[in-house]
Write a structure and sequence with these properties.
- Helix 8 links the parallel strand 7 (187-190) and strand 8 (206-209).
- The protein has one domain (10-228): Alpha-Beta Barrel (TIM Barrel).
- By secondary structure, the protein is of the alpha/beta class.
- The chain is 45% helix and 12% strand.
- It contains twelve helices and eight strands.
Length: 302
């Protein structure tokens, strides 16, 4: 497990900052580039769930892909979320993202349509054929209304540039089956911060993280400790961070993490409908947890 995986160990599913008029706030996005590059992220996933990608137009997505590809320093890989529930649209976005200069693309299991195994295989093959970059599949049944099938994953793992899957089913048996039966060079990333260590334990390689926005160095330390065989140390860090992981999902992602980043002064607390600002009880809980971890001195816990 010593080799560096295709997207590194810690990939941040980055938020999209908006200004008060609803446009993308590129000044804040520049601060995010600097913050994440300095705080443990090996890669960023742009315009995904945490980035409110479903509220962005195709043109806005491509603009974001170009911004991140141009702005990310050496060593910070940029992965563009090009997945939609329409195969032709996903292919077009993948081609545009590749032209924009990203390092990889992510494609979600097509939502709403609930394709069968054959439809899943054909969809992801077409996305992969649209780029020469590595492809990260994304299985998140709670968002898409259905899971990728194991048979589809096994077959797709053999496609040369389908390199990995972000697994957010919450099912360790499912994850274990993927790791056991997929192509030998195909890897699994946790799609859930609180399951990162358990997924590492069954053979995963890292995480596509929300929490890395605010505890990136600690997450990186946990993963590296596990990779080095320091399992007890990794487990202690996991337990220490568990409250942060849970606080960031007190309500629908990305509301808590964007609120936390606003508390840290990095972005404004602006969302696009149907996302709305966090209620006061969520803000108070976040403030308490973040103060407990020393993330912003001066913000009182309540």
């Amino acid at each position: 497990m010593s080799a560096t995986p295709v997207f590194g160990r810690i990939a941040t599913a980055v938020i999209t900052p908006f200004d008060s008029r609803g446009g993308i706030d590129y000044a804040a996005a520049k601060r995010l580039v600097e913050h994440l590059a300095a705080n443990g992220s090996d890669a960023v996933v742009v315009a995904g769930t945490t980035g409110e990608g479903a509220t962005l137009s195709a043109e806005e997505r491509v603009e974001l892909f170009k911004f991140w590809a141009d702005s990310a320093p050496d060593g910070l890989k940029v992965v563009a979320n090009t997945g939609t529930n329409v195969t032709d649209e996903s292919v077009k976005l993948t081609q545009q993202a590749t032209k924009a200069g990203v390092d990889g693309v992510m494609a979600v299991m097509p939502y709403y349509n609930k394709p069968n195994t054959d439809g899943q295989i054909r969809h992801f093959r077409m996305v992969a054929q649209a780029t020469d970059k590595p492809v990260l599949m994304y299985n998140v049944p709670s968002r898409t209304g259905g899971s990728m099938t194991l048979e589809a994953i096994y077959q797709l793992s053999g496609v040369s540039n389908i390199a990995a899957i972000k697994e957010a089913s919450g099912n360790l048996d499912f994850v274990s089956s993927i790791i056991k039966n997929s192509a030998h060079d195909f890897v699994v990333y946790s799609g859930d911060d609180s399951l990162t260590l358990p997924i590492l334990a069954v053979g995963g390689v890292g995480v596509v993280s929300v929490a890395s926005h605010i505890v990136g160095p600690q997450l990186a330390e946990m993963v590296q400790a596990y990779v080095k065989g320091e399992v007890d140390r990794a487990a202690k860090i996991h337990r220490d961070l568990h409250g942060v992981f849970k606080a960031l999902f007190l309500t629908t992602n990305p509301i808590p993490v964007k609120t936390a980043m606003a508390m840290m002064g990095l972005v404004s607390e602006n969302f696009r409908l149907p996302m709305t600002p966090a209620p006061e009880d969520v803000k108070n809980h976040l403030a308490a947890i973040m103060n407990e971890h020393g993330l912003f001195p001066g913000i009182p816990s309540k």
